[in-house]
Structure formats: structure tokens, C-alpha cells
Specification:
Elements: E1 8-10, E2 24-31, E3 37-44, E4 55-59, H1 67-74, E5 78-80, E6 93-95, E7 105-109, E8 119-120, E9 128-129, H2 130-147, E10 156-161, H3 164-181, E11 189-195, H4 201-206, H5 208-214, H6 220-230, H7 242-255, E12 269-271, E13 278-280, H8 290-296, H9 304-314, H10 317-323, E14 344-345, H11 352-358, E15 364-370, H12 378-386, E16 392-401, E17 404-414, E18 417-424, H13 431-434, H14 436-448
Parallel strand pairs: 4-7, 4-10, 9-14, 10-11, 11-15, 15-18
Antiparallel strand pairs: 1-2, 2-3, 3-7, 3-8, 5-6, 12-13, 16-17, 17-18
Helix pairs in contact: 2-3, 6-7
């Protein structure tokens, strides 16, 4: 294997007051026959007991979302100071007291190639897919552990959310295959964790209407009409079935102005690129126009208010220098989540079979869902979990933080395999972004082997 580029130890970041209170390493690791794919990563050493705490490789959803998004918005040790930002200035950062790095070492990675600061040295390097990306991340992890042998004995977990429900199981299976074949370095894989994971195209999509009814977004009459007219299949619609088509159109009209990421949250006003104005919708645009930002940021009604600041911050040359980004490798502006990866093929439509295979191992799984996400409803997640045939060990019950109900949980066990499912009450599709304290308590208990 070719030697990796020297990593950067980042002690100071623009916009953060003083030295970072944690160890941050950034760098590139090349994969491919000639290292033509250069994957950028952020490694945050545990602020607890780094020698013994778990090592998590975190794959941010997408595909095409930067690891920085998870680092600063979800489970990482930094947060933007949204309320104090002034247009025309560089956003400021502060430390998060509910970072998962309090209890774990975490590698955040920009993947697949073309995401964040990751790049290809050839045009062909940008050709990727679910299976190719998983194979490349496996090679990345092998190299990273070779360059960081002191973490080779730490319990290893692979995690992610949303679209990572596809790539994480692929990667876990690849790691298991490598362990079985004796590949080095030998990885201490103990389990995986997923939040609101896209898992099966049909199950996830078909659960939206039952979920919407369950949370009082649809009337009894409308839902019952849909059940009867569509025979419970709201995805593979026969357009000759006019009753089904008509009732689904009525449901669409009822739900179309909801924010699917957090269905009880507001539908957000988002800035379009290059001063084209303001649009309403849940899809993220490229936030680069500070005049539009000046109008939107003070509202502070949407999580996208904070997303906008990442575009300003990460496209700053001083920030890129501090992070050790290679000059000349950015073909365009940095994006939190690429709206599209033109050479990426979504070639896996379901990972249920992978989870089924994991039930024959000694792995531990934590699957959690923000219970206010219409985008990937917890009902669909429960459906595929129940299809695995793993007996329920601990029946449905509330779990608590500070004496308050933080969600509901159910545990499954079969031989040496265990799966914990938990909802996070009031959270959207990226639960730690909405409920940081509760999410940290959940994962801390799970890592320690305690009931959630």
C-alpha cells in the first residue's frame, strides 16, 4: 500500500475562541489501484478514555453528505453560534457538551468520492456506487488502522443515518468477510448503529401513509379508503385502479406542505444560489448569498438556518488551510450535501438480507428513529426489524433522561446477536440534531451494555 499523506493535527480553527478542547486530526487516505480516490476525514479522539473507548467510523447519509455535517450538527464536538452570526463575517463555533466524542473516538469521512473535500485524481475515479463506495471505505479503514495501530484493539462500530442505512450494512458485511479471511489489520468489530436508516425502498416508502395516519395527519376515512382501495400497497400503484389513484392524490394534497424531515416542524424558507431569491421547501439549496442569509438567519425557525453557515465557513480559504485541505483539489464550492453525484449509481435497493445475515453473528445493533420523521418513518423500520425473526427480549417500554420520557425502546436477542430499537421523542430524521442530550444518553448506555 502507498503511504498516506501526512495528517494534520488541528489545534486551532477560525471562529473558535482558543485551542480546541479535543484532539482533531484531518487528512486524506488514498484508495484504488493508484490511490486515485482521495478520501478526506476528520478524526476526533475521545474526550473520555481514548485507549479503551469505542472507535466509530461514521458515514453521514446522502449519498454525498460531508462528514463535517455530522461533526458540527449531529454527534460531533462543535456547534455554530447561529444567533450571534452577522452577515459578512465568518461564523463562530463553540464546543458541544453533548458530543458523542465524550464517550467514543469517531472518524467522520467525506464519502463517496466527490463529497466534501474528497476528490479523484482521474475522471474515472468519480465513477462510484453503493457497492463501490462501501468497498472503498473498507480499504480506507484498513489503511487508517495501519497508520493508527494504537486504536486497533478498541471495540469497533460502524454508524450512520438516513442513506447510510444502505452503505453501513454493506461495509459491515465487508468487514466480517475480511475478518473471516484473516485480513490485516484484524478489526475488533463489535456492532453497528443506524438512525432513521433507509433500508428497503418498498418498506420505507409504503410505511409513510400508515405513519401519517398514526400521528393524526390523515383522517380515519381517508386512511381506511386508501387501505381498501390500494390493498395496503401505496407504492406499486395500478393506474387503472382509479379509486386508489384518487385517494392517494388526496393524501398527497394533505401532506405535501409538511416538512418530512420533522413533520411537526415548519416548512422552511431556503435561499437559492446566486441571489435568485427565496423558495419554500424542505430540500436544501446552496447557501452562498449573504444578503438572502441576512433575511433568513434571524428567523431561527428551521435547522437549515444553521446549515447555511456551513457553506460560508467551509468555503473560507483560511478554514480550508486550517483543516489541511489540499490546494487545487476543489472543483467547485464545498457543499454540506451534494444535491447530486452525477457518476454515482444507487445499485442496492434493500439491505434487509444483510441484517438477516448479521443475526447469525455476535454483533450488537442499535437502530434509533426520530419519531417525528415522515421521510423514513419508524413504523417501516420496525417492520423490517420484526421480519428478521429475532425474538423480543425486552418488550416495548419508555426510556428516560432526567426523569422524563425520552422515547420508547424494544430489545431483540437471538443467541449472541442483539438489536436494540429506540425512538427519540420529538426528534426528526437526524435525531441527535434535535435531541442532543437524549441521543448522547442513549448511545452512552448502549455502548456500556446497559438497557437504554
Amino acid at each position: 500500500m502507498a503511504m498516506a499523506a501526512s495528517p494534520s493535527i488541528v489545534k486551532f480553527l477560525p471562529g473558535f475562541d482558543g485551542e480546541l478542547p479535543f484532539k482533531l486530526e484531518t487528512g486524506y487516505i488514498g484508495v484504488g489501484e493508484i490511490d486515485e480516490v482521495q478520501l478526506f476525514y476528520y478524526f476526533v479522539e475521545s474526550q473520555g478514555d481514548p485507549s479503551n473507548d469505542p472507535l466509530i467510523l461514521w458515514l453521514t447519509g446522502g449519498p454525498g453528505c460531508s462528514g463535517f455535517s455530522a461533526l458540527v450538527y449531529e454527534i460531533g464536538p462543535l456547534l455554530f453560534k447561529v444567533q450571534s452570526w452577522k452577515p459578512g463575517t465568518l461564523p463562530s463555533l463553540r464546543a458541544s457538551k453533548n458530543s458523542w466524542t465524550k464517550v467514543a473516538n469517531i472518524i467522520f469521512i467525506d464519502q463517496p468520492v466527490g463529497t466534501g473535500f474528497s476528490y479523484g485524481t482521474t475522471a474515472a475515479a468519480y465513477n462510484s456506487s453503493d457497492t463501490v463506495a462501501a468497498a472503498q471505505v473498507y480499504k480506507f479503514l484498513r489503511k487508517w488502522l495501519m497508520y493508527n495501530p494504537k486504536f486497533g484493539a478498541n471495540p469497533l462500530y460502524v454508524g450512520g443515518d438516513l442513506y447510510s442505512g444502505i452503505t453501513v450494512p454493506l461495509l459491515v458485511q465487508t468487514i466480517l468477510d475480511g475478518i473471516g479471511s484473516g485480513s490485516l489489520p484484524r478489526m475488533q468489530l463489535k456492532g453497528y448503529l443506524l438512525g432513521n436508516p433507509l433500508t428497503d425502498d418498498f418498506i420505507d416508502a409504503n410505511s409513510k401513509i400508515p405513519y401519517a395516519f398514526r400521528v393524526n395527519l390523515l383522517s380515519d376515512e381517508l386512511y381506511e379508503d386508501a387501505e381498501v382501495s390500494c390493498n395496503g400497497d401505496f407504492v406499486n400503484v395500478d393506474f387503472n385502479n382509479t379509486n386508489c389513484v384518487a385517494v392517494l392524490q388526496g393524501i398527497k394534497e394533505n401532506l405535501q406542505l409538511l416538512n418530512e424531515a420533522q413533520n411537526f416542524g415548519p416548512l422552511c424558507a431556503l435561499a437559492k444560489p446566486k441571489g435568485e431569491g427565496i423558495q419554500w421547501g424542505a430540500e436544501e439549496a446552496e447557501f452562498t448569498d449573504s444578503l438572502i442569509l441576512q433575511d433568513i438567519i434571524p428567523q431561527l425557525t428551521c435547522r437549515s438556518s444553521s446549515w447555511m453557515l456551513s457553506y460560508i465557513y467551509m468555503n473560507d480559504e483560511g478554514v480550508q488551510r486550517a483543516l489541511g485541505v489540499k490546494e487545487g483539489t476543489m472543483n467547485s464550492t464545498w457543499r454540506r450535501c451534494a444535491k447530486s453525484l452525477p457518476f454515482y449509481e444507487e445499485d442496492v435497493s434493500s439491505t434487509v438480507a444483510y441484517h438477516k445475515n448479521f443475526t447469525r453473528t455476535a454483533l450488537r445493533a442499535l437502530i434509533y428513529s426520530g419519531d417525528q420523521a415522515l421521510s423514513i418513518p419508524y413504523l417501516g423500520t420496525l417492520e423490517w426489524i420484526n421480519s428478521l425473526g429475532v425474538p423480543i427480549f425486552d418488550t416495548w417500554r419508555p426510556w428516560f433522561v432526567d426523569g422524563q420520557v425520552a422515547g420508547y425502546t424494544q430489545k431483540y436477542e437471538k443467541n449472541s446477536y442483539s438489536l436494540t430499537f429506540a425512538t427519540v421523542k420529538g426528534a426528526g430524521e437526524t435525531a441527535p440534531e434535535y435531541k442532543r442530550k437524549e441521543a448522547l444518553a442513549m448511545v452512552n448506555r448502549w455502548f456500556a451494555g446497559y438497557p437504554v
